[in-house]
Recover the amino acids of this structure.
């Protein structure tokens, strides 16, 4: 990840009007606005978020801001431009940093920063980012945050009337493909269907569980086929047979493995 301050060349104060976070490998960009951001000093595209009380600009609009400052991918002589700049493919990050983010439409430019250069308020913001998410039955989500808090969310309530969530709510396989968005800025299904971390943090039901406690549960209470066989005093083939006869139920399985709840394996010994 690379961090840049966005500044205005025409401003005598040289204050940071925003911060751009670049995730090169993921080709993902996010813009954060300072707590004391002034709508009149903030780039026009970003000021609309500020007016709505939002300090984080989502990945889509952050990328739009970046794309407005570089040569477009449909430029007729794009191949020649890339070659002249030593690039063998279209790379938004490299094209942006070649000019320090300058473009002919305004006077904004980029200045590289390190994490320690960010305002102290960003420490609190980072604590509200998503650390992990677990899909539960009936379109419920268990969301873990960097500050250690956990919230149970109902996707139907979060999605509201947004049509893009329709296929996710109707298809359990798609629903379970949920991931943490790059940088912990939210959760997502693919690149474009996302729910921002701030919304997740301020809604839902607080659960008295930490990520470390959940990890302890998995470590202590989930066993593989070999461990199940040892617990039952039988062979792995016998475990496979129990699964085939619907006497033992894996919670996850692949082509070469099965995982079981230790409690079910233990209870099997009682029968």
């Amino acid at each position: 990840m690379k961090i840049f301050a966005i500044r205005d060349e025409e401003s005598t104060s040289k204050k940071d009007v925003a911060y751009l976070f670049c995730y090169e490998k993921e080709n993902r960009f996010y813009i954060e606005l300072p707590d004391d951001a002034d709508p009149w000093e903030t780039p026009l595209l970003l000021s609309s978020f500020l007016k709505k009380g939002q300090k984080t600009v989502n990945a889509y609009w952050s990328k739009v801001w970046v794309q407005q400052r570089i040569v477009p991918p449909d430029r007729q002589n794009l191949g020649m431009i890339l070659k002249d700049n030593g690039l063998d493919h279209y790379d938004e990050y490299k094209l942006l940093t070649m000019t320090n983010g300058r473009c002919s439409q305004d006077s904004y430019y980029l200045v590289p920063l390190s994490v320690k250069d960010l305002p102290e308020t960003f420490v609190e913001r980072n604590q509200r980012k998503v650390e992990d998410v677990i899909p539960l039955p009936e379109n419920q989500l268990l969301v873990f945050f960097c500050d250690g808090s956990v919230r149970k969310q109902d996707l139907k309530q979060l999605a509201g009337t947004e049509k893009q969530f329709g296929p996710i709510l109707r298809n359990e396989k798609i629903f379970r493909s949920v991931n943490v968005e790059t940088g912990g800025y939210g959760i997502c299904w693919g690149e474009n269907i996302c729910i921002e971390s701030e919304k997740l943090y301020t809604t839902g039901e607080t659960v008295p569980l930490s990520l470390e406690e959940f990890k302890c549960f998995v470590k202590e209470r989930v066993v593989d086929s070999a461990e199940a066989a040892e617990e039952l005093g039988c062979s792995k083939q016998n475990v496979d047979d129990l699964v085939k006869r619907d006497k033992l139920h894996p919670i996850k399985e692949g082509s070469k493995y099965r995982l079981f709840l230790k409690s079910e394996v233990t209870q099997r010994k009682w029968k």
The mean pLDDT is 92.
